[in-house]
Amino acid sequence: MHSIFHITEIKQIENQVWQITLKLTKIDDKQLIYLKELIHGKTQNVNQWYRLAKLMAVLREFDHAKEIYHVLLNLLPTTESSKLCYIYNELGIICDETGDYRLALSFYQKALEIQRKTTHFSHHLLSIAYNNIGEIQRELGDYFKALSYHKKTLSIKQKILSPHDLSLATTYNNLGLANQSLGEFATALEFYEKSLNIKRKALSPAHIDFAVTYNNMGELHREMGKYAAALKYLEKGLQIRLKTCSPNDSSLAITYNNIGLIHREQGDYNQAISYFRKSLEIKEKTYTSNHPALAISYINIGEVHQLLGEFPEAISSYEKALEIQEKAYSINHPDLAITYNNLGIVHQLLGNYPSGLSFYQKALKIRQKSLPPNHPALATTYNNIGHVSQLMGDNNVALEYYQKTKNVQEKCLGPYHPSLAATFNNLGDIQRTLGNHKKALGLYEKSLEIKKKSLSPNHPTLSVAYNNIGVVHQAMQKHALALEYYKKALEIQQKNLPLDHPDVALSYYNIGTVHQSIKQYSIALDNYEKALKIQEKTLSPNHPDLAHIHNSTATAYFYLEKYQKALEHEQRAVDISTQSLSPDHPHLQTFKLHLQRIQSELEVK
């Protein structure tokens, strides 16, 4: 009767003699069930030492696996080219799994070099080398090289394999990933569907390989803004993995992370952070503390904190990610751009506009070097530079970058993608600032139309559209309509956001301005005080938004003839603006004029 064991320890006790400590495994062990099929396919036609090393790698006992492979390397003569290639490829896979991508690339290139020098080289081993280099180039952020190597892999496989070979499904999947990274979504989808079609003919519906393709198709649909389809694919993949994988399998971490992204996009932040933390918990058990996979979780958790207005927590998460990425990647890796971009957003939200712009420019520099000119990530960076330029009062620069954003998005995203809605919103902001209210209203309504078609009815970003439409109606003296839209915005925010979220403060502020416009100063003041209470809790002491609320509060007190109170608030508006804006900024000049007016009234009194 056969017995199956876990390996608990492996050590060399003398030259050429190794001691292996074993622990008996139960027949219903989940890892055992998963491994039986996997190991059978991956370790055929190799001797016991190779099988043992492969087993150690699959069990994530990477140090032990590397020890065995290095022993085998030392024993092999240079004439054993196929075995040397096999070991270098396996060492590359281990380094890939542990996040040491540069060392992985070095091993893969050694394998490829041996193959090219061999007189009677193996097309099969050559295709493996090309595939592995392609995958590691994608991890390193060089998507064009990744695509080139995967095309080489496909060219070889199409010559030596049948059209329905499962190995072709893997190559189609990898071509899908490379195209997706380059923003070529339609091409990526074609390759994923080719991969899926082969698997449907060769595998049972619950096979683990389906989970890989479902996950990739889910991620692709998320990037395309098709959230319902994305969630359907991801949940299909999750159900397969829960049945076949161990509880701490890294693929489960990926699936939980991707489901979290969908919930975040749909505005369900509590569900999102729950899935991100599930993912991080698995990664912390599976990977080393400096593995890039942990950085992804820190970024995603940081983004939810940011959306909830919890800015210190967001910065902390982003800085953890950045620390890992700077050690793991080259200075132009696209993932570094993501973290720089997110740090820019938080600093912008805290009112540190020069710091925000600096981080955005770092992100743009990387993305212009590593991505094609119509990649969605470039649109994101253009948008953010436009936004911070607008906040700094440079409307011409802002308009230039928003137009760049729109041009890229219209080429690479569908007409109802949520990102395009945000861009119409931002173009509306600029037109409103320039006094073109009808143009602004048209752009805001386009933004709202897209959001209604692509998001749930209570998604938090709908409140942004309602608020902005309210602002334009107010500027056009349509106060009843303005109040209606502001209240719609507040209603959505109170259902989905913490009560002290900055967006809630904005709605109170906007409602206050309408009441002030129709001379209902006491009601206006009540709303301003609600807004101020939230902003003082969530924003930095010198945030420009605080200056605006102090200015408006001062105005309400002024018309209520409470001049001393008005003076206190207007002085705060001037002090904050002096710290946070340029000396010639129009807002600062306006606040100074208001202060002089209040002082004049006090002198008369």
TrEMBL record:
InterPro entries: TPR-like_helical_dom_sf, TPR_rpt. Pfam families: TPR_10 (PF13374), TPR_12 (PF13424), TPR_8 (PF13181). TPR repeats lie at residues 85-118, 127-160, 169-202, 211-244, 253-286, 295-328, 337-370, 421-454, 463-496, 505-538, 547-580. Keywords: Repeat, TPR repeat. SMART domains: TPR. Signal peptide: none annotated. This is Kinesin light chain. It comes from Rotaria magnacalcarata.
